[in-house]
Every structure is written in structure tokens, then in C-alpha cells.
Amino acid sequence: MMSFSLRRTAPPPSHMPKSSFSDKTGQPPPPLPEKAETIPEPDKRTVTTQPTSAGPPTQADAKDLDVERSKKRQNIITRTLWTFIMIGGFVGLLLMGHAYLIILVMLCQALVYREVTALFSLKDHAPDTLDVDTGGQKDPWSKTLNWYFFAVTNYFLYGESIIYYFKHVVFTDGQLLPFAMNHRIISFTLYTIGFMGFVMSLKRGYLKQQFGLFCWVHMSLLLIVVSSHFIVNNILEGLIWFWVPASLVICNDVFAYIWGITLGRTPLIKLSPKKTVEGFVGAFWSTLIFSVFWGSYFMQFKYMICPVHDLGVSIWSDVQCVPNPVFVRREWEIWGPLQVFLSQILGRPIAVIPYVPYQLHLLVFAIFASLFAPFGGFFASGFKRAFNIKDFGHSIPGHGGMTDRMDCQFLMGVFTYVYYSSFIREHHVTVGSILQMIVSGLSVEEQLELMRDLKKYMQGQGISLD
After folding, report:
1. Distance CA 261, CA 279 (A)
2. Which end of the chain is more exposed for a tag (fewer CB within 10 A), N or C?
3. What is the mean pLDDT of residues 88-97?
4. Treating both helix axes as pointing N-terminal to C-terminal, what angle do 402-423 and 357-371 enclose, rounded to 10 degrees?
């Protein structure tokens, strides 16, 4: 940060006694030498003030200005370049298929987890008691346990997703069946092993810090891994439930910046001094309009709206499914007097207005992305202020860490899954759910009896099973 120089002459202290020269001659003492005064500011910038009689900026000051401008210019170029790289990579993975987007989400959650857990280290804390010799002692909390809990949580959550969305595969494979039938007890056993490892790692002098880190890790698992699990479920329910909400968050962020630098005057929240009320309001209306056009375009493609049944599909695959009713076009009958009024204005009869229910849901997503998702960013800003850091890391050049880019996405992803599960998802019987009931609820003899009865039924319908 560049220092600003202001010249001023420091007055002599009032408590200093007069010199013998002044007593005898009556003349004032010689002036004190000019001295720079350093004023610390809350954000740790150092402003050096010097006597005000200085002339125009020196050559050194001009050089500092050029260096500062060059750094800002280079940062803008780097930030813009990596923005297009991320957008291009995002679109490329979308075209390649569901599996690649799931890998992307898992990679992002791993980077965010590493950045957040790295903020809490026992190396930065003194022992609980002074009679503990810490010379040469390693961090008593091993990073292995941190990542062990991360792996176990992912095993449990993604195992649940695989069993739910791929019943037709899991319950027909003899090798996967034991894991599917005992998935939860296996997950709990693995967690218990990690819990025992933590207790065995407790050391005198570090107990308070170790339990603090234990809570820190579990908070990170809840906010990061569980949120990522819901985002993956959105992908499996149909790419449109992942792609459009994520795009709305990005759109809101971009429009908030544009409106902020154009009309922004009123600060919005102290945690983020650059956020303005004008940018917040302008981004709300812009995102609302953008959501209808953006979502209406992508809902035309079955590749985007169909739930996944095969992780090997891509944009070039022939994906077919029965669309969810929210994607089926409907007509809204206009109130009689309004029909007459609109017909007279437009010069042709208008009785109905075509619409798709998904467009109404888009407005809900846009409202959440504009009014509530930004608070995930404010939460992250407060987090950074608490630890006195500018960014969570340097994973993305020009953008800081992965956490700086994903703070709002986690909140949006969880809302999308909860909203979809509550108001949009169809609950009906599937082949996978029936198969799960047969495998888990019937004995081998009962399964054979069911097969014989089903065979008789099919033959009675004139269907040959040969």
C-alpha cells in the first residue's frame, strides 16, 4: 500500500524546560529537527506524515505511483483471464456429462475444506499450561485425522446418493450388494475409529486447542461437505437444477459489481465495505429478468432436464425421459374483461397466456440468489476479518482461494435441493425402489416365488419371456 507524505513541523513539547541559552539571551531555542511522524491505522496501513512545506511529488513518488498502477493493471488482466478460463472450463464439463461435474464439485469441496481447516492450527497456539515442554514437539493433532473425517463423511454421503439414484445397478450386482445393504453400519464404524483415534491423540497442555480443532473440523464438514452433497444430488436430479441456480449466483455477483461501480453511493453492510445498496437493488432486478430468459432456454433440452440413470451420458448422447410436469407447457385463461381490453389494444383476440410452471420457480430461485445467497459472501467476509486475512488462499490467480468463489454457491445449492425436494420432485414407484424392497425384504425362497408368479402374469398377458 502506497504511503502518503504530508510535511509539517513538529512543535516543541510544552513540558520541556528552557535551555540556558534562552535564559541568558532571551532568544528562542534553535528549532527542533524535522521528524517524520508515523500514524498507524486500523487496517495496518502505515501513513507517514512529514512537514507541509514540501513541493511537488518527487521522482521516487512518481515511480511508486507507476508501480502501483502497473500492479493493479496486471491484477485486472489476471483476474479477467482466469474468469474466462473458469467459465470455459465450467461449460466444457457441462457438455462432457454428469460425472465430470460431480468430480468438479468434489475437487472444489476438497480445496475449500483445506483452506478453512488450515486457518486453525495448533502451531499458532501456546500450551494450556506453562509447565509443558514444547521444544521440538510436533503438532499433536495430525492432519491425517482431519482428512480421515473428511473421507469418511464423503463415503457416507455419496454412498447414500449412489444407493438412492442407482438402485437398479447396486441391487443387481452381487459385489456391490453387501456394501449397499450394510452401508450405514460401515460408515458409523469408520467414524468411530476416527473418534477413538482423536481421543488417543489428546496430549496434556493442548487439550483446549485440540477440542477446539475437533469442533472446527466438524463445523467445516457440516458447512462444506454436506452442502456439496446436496449440490451433487442436484446434478443427479437433472443438470438444470445445478447449472441454472449456479448461473444466477454468478449473474447476481456480476450485476452487483456493474451497478455498484456505476451508481453505488450508499454502503450496504460494514463487513463488505465495497457492497452498496444501489448495486444490491440493481442486481436483484437484473437477476430476476435474466433468470426467466436463461432458464427458459435450457429447459428445452432433455439432456438438461432428465434425471441421470447412466453416468456415461454427455451432450452427444440421445437422452430420453418423461419430463417433470413443471417443464410441460400450460395455458392460463385470462379474466373476461381483461381479454376484451387486451384484444382491443393488440388488435387480435387473446384468451389465454402460455407459460411453463418452471418459469415461476425460476423467479423464486432468482429472489433467493439476489436477496439471501449474498449473505453467504458476507459470512465469508466476516470470517476473513476475524482472522485478519484478505483471501482464504491462492488457488485461483487473481481471485484468491476457492472459498472466496464458492461462499454463495453452497447456500444456493442447499436451497435448490430443499426447494426441489419439497415442491417439484415427483414421488412415485420406480423399478429401483421395487428392486430394493425385494432384495432387502424378501428371502431367497420368496424372491423365487415372486419370479414364478410374475412369469405367469406376463404369460397371461401374452408376453413371451423366451
Report:
1. 8
2. C
3. 91
4. 140
pLDDT tens, position by position, 250-303 = 999 989 989 998 898 898 888 888 889 999 999 999 999 999 999 999 999 999
* Residues 54, 74: Cα–Cα separation, whole Å: 32
Residue 388 has pLDDT above 60, yes or no: yes
Instruction: Give the separation between CA 164 and CA 233, rounded to whole angstroms.
Output: 10
Whether 236 contacts 415, CB under 8 Å: no
- Burial profile 52-86: b = 16 or more Cβ within 10 angstroms, e = fewer: eeeeeeeeeeeeeeeeeeeeeeeeeeeeeeeeeee
| Predicted model pTM | 0.76
Task: Report which of 157, 154, 183, 155 is spatially closest to residue 170, judged by C-alpha positions.
Answer: 183
| Residue closest to 234 by CA, chosen among 427, 372, 419 | 419
- Give the residue among 55, 51, 60, 50 at the shortest CA–CA distance from 2: 60
Distance CA 303, CA 321 (A): 9
Alpha-carbon distance 181 to 440, whole Å? 7
Alpha carbon distance 170, 436 (integer Å): 9
Q: Which three cell numbers stand for residue 262?
A: 456505476
* Per-residue DSSP letter, 325: G
- Distance between start and end Cα atoms, the chain: 81
According to DSSP, the residues that pair with 201 across neighbouring strands are none
- Please check the confidence at residue 66 and state whether its pLDDT lies above 80: no
Average of pLDDT values for 420-432? 83
**Cα–Cα distance measured from residue 253 to residue 163, given in angstroms and rounded to the nearest whole number:** 36
